[in-house]
Structure formats: structure tokens, C-alpha cells
Design a protein that fits this description.
2 helices, single chain, mainly alpha, 60 residues, 92% helix
């Protein structure tokens, strides 16, 4: 498993927490930061999945 997949999943979790806290306390900036972190995490995870696919294709 590529490290980008792991980091992406962590970024998504961190973003979800920030977004939820932002909603609860009414902090729009924190909520927006959380949403941005989630999107960045999804992108990073996608890069990791692509790297894994290429690595698996090369092995075959």
C-alpha cells in the first residue's frame, strides 16, 4: 500500500473532524478548512491508488 493512500485517509479524517467542529461551534472558516482537507485527502489517496495500480501492473 502506498504511503499516499494512508496519508490521504488521515487527511480525510482530520478534515471531517475539523468540519464537524466548525459546524458545531459555528465557525465557517474551520468548517471550510475541514472540507478543503477532506478534498486534499481524497486527491492524495487517489494518487496512492494510481501508484499501487501501476506497481501491480508492472509486477504482472
Amino acid at each position: 500500500m502506498d504511503k499516499n493512500r494512508i496519508e490521504g485517509a488521515l487527511d480525510q479524517a482530520k478534515g471531517a473532524v475539523k468540519e464537524t467542529i466548525g459546524k458545531v461551534v459555528g465557525n465557517d472558516k474551520l468548517q471550510a478548512e475541514g472540507a478543503a482537507d477532506k478534498m486534499a485527502g481524497k486527491a492524495k489517496e487517489g494518487v496512492g491508488e494510481a501508484k499501487d495500480a501501476v506497481r501491480d501492473a508492472v509486477k504482472k
